[in-house]
Amino acid sequence: MKRRDFLKTSSLLMGAGVLPLLKHVPAYAAGHEDTIVVVLANGPNSMDIHRKGTNRPSYAIAVNLYDRLVGYGSKTLANGTTMYDFETIEPELAESWELATDGMSVTFKLRADATFHDGSPVTAEDVKWSFDRAVSVGGFPTVQMKAGSLLKPEQFTAVDAQTFKIDFIEKSKLTIPDLGVPVPIIINAKEAKKHATADDPWASEYLHRTPLGGGAFKLERWDPGQQVVYTRFDDWKSGPLPGARRVIIREVPSASTRRALLEKGDADVSLDLPAKDFRELADSGKVSVQGAPIENSMSALGLNMNFEPFQKKLVRQAVAYAIPYDDIFEVAAFGRGVKMNGGTSFKPTTTEWPQPFPYDTDYDKARELLAEAGYKDGFEVPLSFNLGLADWSEPAALLVQEGLARVGIKSTLDKIPGANWRTKALVEKSLPLHLKNFGGWLNYADYYFFWVYQHGHLFNSMNYKNDEIEALVNSTLKLEVSDPAYKPNVLRMIEIAFDEVPLIPFYQPFLDVATQKNVTGYEYWFHRQLDARALAKKS
Q: What predicted TM-score, i.e. pTM, was given to this entire model?
């Protein structure tokens, strides 16, 4: 299908679904000052962020229904968008903390009046069990804790009912910031243990459907594939009470329907509209549109090293020269992002990340490199993308397909449903050539490399392994940015990424949100999910 035909057909199909779905979102709720109605393409597949296979929308459950020991401050960008402040750590469940004089432990004093949703007190024993669980269940949550050098239960001690201590294995700049990400949630251990078994010691099956938290909101109902409803927890003590008593999050797969609901006033908030819609809505002035570049994030093409041609660096570089970057930026991102092509040198001079790679569209160069690598006549490869992110990934895939065809690489499109993407791309790592997007929660280049370039880690869907990268990341994660070794280490990582190109970035995307003009309190967060705690509506 030609690009113009795809865009025309997509518009017709999206428009066809508007009217039948309008009736499913309660208009009265959108008009009620105590209720926020949110429309999203995909909702959570679990109430437990620690569960294997939990999807990104489930991160919002961890943020809104659970507490962490600490959180982050906020700041306002020049364009008026409010976002989290990575450099400011603020109390949440812990009202204070103290670093040991030798720098090898930290002790937290918990709020004495904090309770879980069932009214039981939050104690240090609950915190310890929750941390023990996070470092023991395996998979993504355990690796995330590892990023902050939180590795084993022996590091965590409940000193008394209100005092919790973490002993460090090594000093790391990521340890305290890592406590504010969605993973280290504080679970009602007393209740969870009632549902644990010998085969399920962490009560994973129960917590999959039944959250046991003490966060700003309680779960009113969850209809998987349809909606999640929060109600405010009026006894919450870890911050200002939310401005909304109720938050209704509806799954509406059609982007055109989500936009129609917003423009009609039947929805208050939508985060995941296509870039084209955000640009048009911003131009129209009908609703408020706020956006910020997603920190530590790139929309990119992953080349799987288990696929024989991609084991050759020259082939990977050839693919990097065969990408129509400018077309992708305009058609897939609609200009809402920062270009990541056209860098001027293979030797980086700044640790800024992400930064443009030194490749641009050059089909002659691509053909030359393919011939040098022994693939003068090209090869065939499936090109996979996530249908759950089709608003950008499908037009980008079509353009990549066109570019590769011009240098003799024949790619067949492999459309993978969003529900299956994480398993195929990230767990099994079985996709030879695939579009991907990752955003690192902690805004350091070495943290991005930890997740995306270190072998075996979840978001290294390329099966890439480089011994020098392994050593550099392991040594740099614990270094403060002020350490003399930090800058040269990061520059070397980036230089290797430029040269080896297992990952070919297109652009750094924006995270946009559209809201009714009477909705206040939206903040951009690194986890890219809606933090409803600060949302409110003006009457």
A: 0.83
